[in-house]
Design goal:
about 40% helix, OB fold (Dihydrolipoamide Acetyltransferase, E2P), five-stranded mixed sheet, about 350 residues, 60s Ribosomal Protein L30, Chain: A, single chain, alpha/beta, 6 helices, 13 strands, five-stranded mixed barrel
Length: about 350
């Protein structure tokens, strides 16, 4: 009698597991909806919004707000920007475009029916939790066949229990191992969601890796040979980093009128940017919009010639995105040229 009761309990256990497996399979099939495909006419200027469901190199798969899936091609000329407060935008690198992110892409269609992106903008806070399921449709489809097989195996074992009473203990242990494996896979999937959320939340977290200061003569925007050498050195070190951007800010002393000094600080910043792009092989998308700071934030007292000499400057900073380069081991380095190291007057 005791053995018969144990047999009946085990049979109900396996039948319940089979129902659970069938339920998981049904949920997977509901998620794996056949997507619509969107194509872009060659030469047409297009603006599209949607959620990234995958990225392979410089090619994005985008599920639009109309649920159609299209292909977005990125190039070295594509501007990738993150929206910030007061209408400001921050230049980003392609590694920031992670699955699950809601973006707006602008560009022209090509001969393949894909969108050749000229500009991509996004707000990290707009990532939609409901869209995260889309990024896992493909892995779920791949697991559908495996779940079907497991469901069939569990059903067969439940039917064999009546004639295999001697193997009850072994089969129970095997079933427990399978349940543990399913739980492990679920935990791994949940960890993947946590990792994606962590990367997105750190997209606006930058670490200053390198700083150089270029000084100028009174009313001058000219770069000396030493200045160019320092900019070349900065660019070479920046190119060895991943997910970097360069921030350039120009300043002036208080000599003369404020409007003139504002314009002078802007010209100095643009001279440095032009040299980095044309002579130091820095891609334009890596350089943030130049900041003309005028006479604000003086580095020294403008009442003395020495102080004014330190205020006629451009500060160049290499910033590395910590959301993309997790656990970066690059050591911070700061190198500022002092006024006495060149011929500034």
């Amino acid at each position: 009698m005791k053995l018969r009761m144990k047999h009946i309990a085990a049979r109900y256990t396996r039948t319940g597991i089979a129902f659970v497996a069938q339920g998981l399979l049904a949920a997977t099939l509901v998620l794996a909806v056949e997507p619509n495909t969107r194509t872009f006419s060659a030469g047409d200027q297009v603006k599209v919004q949607g959620v990234i469901i995958s990225r392979t190199g410089d090619v994005l798969k985008l599920r639009g707000d109309d649920e159609a899936i299209g292909t977005i091609d990125l190039t070295g000329e594509t501007k990738i920007q993150m929206k910030r407060s007061f209408g400001r935008k921050t230049a980003m690198q392609v590694d920031a475009l992670v699955p699950g992110l809601h973006i707006e892409a602008q560009g022209k269609g090509n001969e393949k029916g894909e969108l050749l992106a000229e500009k991509v903008t996004f707000d990290p806070n707009s990532m939609r939790a409901s869209r995260q399921i889309d990024t896992r449709v493909h892995p779920l489809e791949e697991r559908t066949g495996s779940l079907e097989g497991r469901a069939g195996q569990l059903e067969n074992r439940a039917g064999q229990m009546e004639t295999r009473q001697g193997q009850l203990e072994g089969q129970e242990k095997q079933t427990e191992q399978q349940v543990g494996q399913v739980k492990t896979e679920a935990d791994q999937a949940n960890q993947g969601v946590t990792d994606v959320n962590g990367r997105v939340s750190n997209l606006d977290n930058y670490k200053e890796e390198l700083t150089k200061t270029i000084y100028f003569r009174l009313n001058s925007t000219a770069l000396s040979a030493d200045d160019k050498k320092e900019l070349d050195d900065l660019a070479q070190k920046a190119l060895s980093e991943k997910a970097y951007v360069i921030e350039v800010a120009g300043y002036a002393d208080t000599t003369g009128k404020a409007a003139k000094n504002q314009l002078l600080s802007d010209r100095r910043a643009n001279v440095v940017i032009q040299y980095l792009e044309q002579n130091s092989n820095v891609e334009p998308r890596r350089i943030l919009t130049p900041a003309a700071m005028g006479t604000s934030h003086p580095a020294a007292d403008n009442k003395t010639p020495e102080g004014r000499k330190e205020n006629r400057r451009v500060e160049v900073k290499v910033l590395v995105n910590q959301g993309v380069v997790a656990g970066s081991n690059a050591s911070s380095s700061t190198a500022s040229k002092q006024p006495g190291e060149s011929n500034q007057q």
